[in-house]
Design a protein that fits this description.
single chain, 317 residues, alpha+beta, 4-stranded antiparallel β-sheet, globular
Length: 317
């Protein structure tokens, strides 16, 4: 064991070591607090992570463990652990960690009585394994880029670079995700919104409800409800739009959804509950996904060309 060159056994031991370290961190410091990674902290973490990947690659010839990270014998065990943890996440009900304040004013996080597996995205073993996968991806991407060949490597790099981009930006960008609720009323511009902790936020936009409309079924239950709203930015720009449950209005990086209304007033409601969502890293996540899709299309196109050439050779044309 641990004789050079390392093999699959060492790869599984490294993964097990990361999970063990993650459990110790979970027990000692609690779950990962992603809300501490607001911009620019998450940007600095991403930059440091990229430097770490580059340093591991540059030192691979001096440190055997670094050289091992870029091999399939490290990748396969890491993928096994990743798949297992992802399956567990899919099979368990995921709940948000609830921030609470102690009598001294210190903030702590509880999971509402759930187990570790109920908040996998903040579970240290899950985070460390995914970070390890990202490091392996980075090594593979650098190595293939330095030996780039157009026909062979375009699909490969699109797939792997897209996956790396989607993984890292979705994780670090989660800290900048804001999901707030606002009560918009007729005849009043509302600048404030509330988060899940009940904290009030001053918004960069104001919303005024102009008209609430509702369509009902024969039994009186709501079929469709929407709000005609006017939006004012702090720069003085004005917008108009109609929001529904799954049809938001987009203004200055915010998506405004219909969330609820005054149920006692029903179709005569003069207030509308809106959900305001801001996710500035989402375009980068989508870019990564589109790159993976493009890589898959390139692979299919290349496979089709190879098969066409084979048929042409067999037919003697």
């Amino acid at each position: 064991m641990w004789t050079k060159p390392y093999g699959l056994r060492e790869g599984f031991l490294i993964g097990a070591g990361l999970i063990g370290a993650g459990i110790l961190l979970e027990l000692s410091v609690g779950p990962v607090r992603w809300d501490a990674f607001h911009w620019p902290v998450n940007g600095m973490v991403l930059a440091g992570f990229l430097v770490l990947i580059a340093a591991i690659f540059l030192l691979r010839k001096k440190v055997h463990a670094f050289q091992f990270i870029g091999t399939y014998k490290a990748a396969i065990p890491a993928l096994v652990y990743t798949v297992v943890l992802t399956i567990i996440m899919g099979l368990t009900r995921q709940t948000n960690l609830t921030p609470t304040l102690s009598p001294t004013g210190d903030e702590s996080y509880t999971d509402g009585g759930g187990m570790w597996f109920n908040h996998m995205l903040s579970f240290w073993p899950f985070v460390l394994i995914y970070a390890y996968i990202a490091v392996i991806l980075g090594q593979v991407i650098i190595r293939r880029t330095l030996h780039f060949r157009w026909k062979r490597d375009i699909p490969f790099l699109l797939n792997h670079l897209g996956l790396f981009l989607a993984m890292t930006t979705a994780t670090l960008g989660n800290a900048d995700l804001q999901r707030l609720r606002m009560m918009a009323t007729e005849g009043k511009q509302e600048w404030r919104a509330m988060d899940e902790r009940g904290m009030i936020h001053e918004m960069p936009i104001a919303i005024e409800l102009k008209k609430f409309t509702m369509e009902t079924y024969d039994d009186g239950s709501p079929k469709r409800f929407a709000s005609d709203i006017h939006i004012l930015t702090k720069e003085g720009k004005k917008y108009k739009g109609t929001v529904e449950v799954n049809k938001p209005v987009k203004v200055d990086g915010w998506k405004i959804y219909q969330y609820g209304y005054d149920t006692e007033m029903g179709s005569m409601s003069q207030a509308s509950i809106l959900e305001l969502v801001s996710d500035p890293w989402l375009p980068l996540v989508y870019t990564g996904i589109y790159m993976m899709l493009a890589g898959a299309l390139c692979m299919f196109a290349g496979f089709a060309l190879v098969k066409s050439d084979e048929r042409r050779v067999k037919s003697g044309k």
